[in-house]
Fold this sequence. Notes:
Blueprint: E1 4-11, H1 24-34, E2 40-42, H2 55-65, H3 72-84, E3 87-89, E4 92-96, E5 102-109, E6 115-120, E7 139-142, E8 146-150, H4 159-167, E9 172-176, H5 184-198, E10 201-205, E11 217-219, E12 225-228, E13 235-242, H6 244-252, E14 271-273, E15 278-280
Parallel strand pairs: 1-2, 2-3, 8-9, 9-10
Antiparallel strand pairs: 1-13, 4-5, 5-6, 7-8, 10-11, 11-12, 14-15
Helix pairs in contact: 4-5
Amino acid sequence: MSRPLPVALVQAPPRLATDPLSGFAEDVGGVLARFPQTRLVAYPELHLCGTDGPPAESESRLRDAAEPLDGPRVRQLAELAGDLGVWLFPGTVCERGPAGELFNTALAFSPEGRLAAHYRKVFPWRPFEPYAPGDRFVVLDLPDTGRVGFAICYDAWFPEVARHLAWMGAEVIVNPVMTTSADRAQELVLARANAIVNQVYVVSVNTAGPLGTGRSLVVDPEGRVRVQAADSAPTVLTDVLDLDDVTRVRTFGTAGLNRMWNQFTEADAPIDLPLYDGRLDPRRWHVTDN
């Protein structure tokens, strides 16, 4: 069997701070007109938040533009996804939480026009970002296709994130990124490593130049790069992910050998994990449906 997921990754510069949603519907519609079989469209981190300008001004604008999840921005994006009949991952937004805190939050909208999931970045890039950390990992089911998890930019540097998402059943990790610094080369290695050690697809969509360093990519469950932007120029990467490849790799092993999710036997003793004040229990070491 096959479970195809046609995706379009839009490597683009952030939209202008004056009116970031202006023209966004036309942009998404243009992508779908060029690639009409697309089921999931993904944009970079903070794409709709107007982050241009000096850092102090940018942070001030982020705070001014922050909205709760029941605000007009989310309603507009939900309507757009419904109008276009597509899974829309518009990057992340600056969310104002219930206690007034700021979160860097990834959004996912369904083809029916609803907010299907949101994920607050667990590992803000400190000391450079003003956000409070989220407190949970998030996965989302795409009916008749598979399960998607979220990891925002710097989250990818922490193996706990991808490992928990895979344990929660994620077959694709969508990683919206706004990398403007010299460490994109390392992030490309991490994208492949997270895919390999968790046997998942990793989809990393970065901001385009002149602000971002681009080089967005798609990595398959065995760590092979399927498609990658050559540089920071604006572009749209397209691919069709077959989520049954995740099932195949987990069943037969990476390179037909390594089956990490079937590592333990019932006779194996738990392993203490003092870093987490916890333990690795062989009875829980398998992909879940929760």
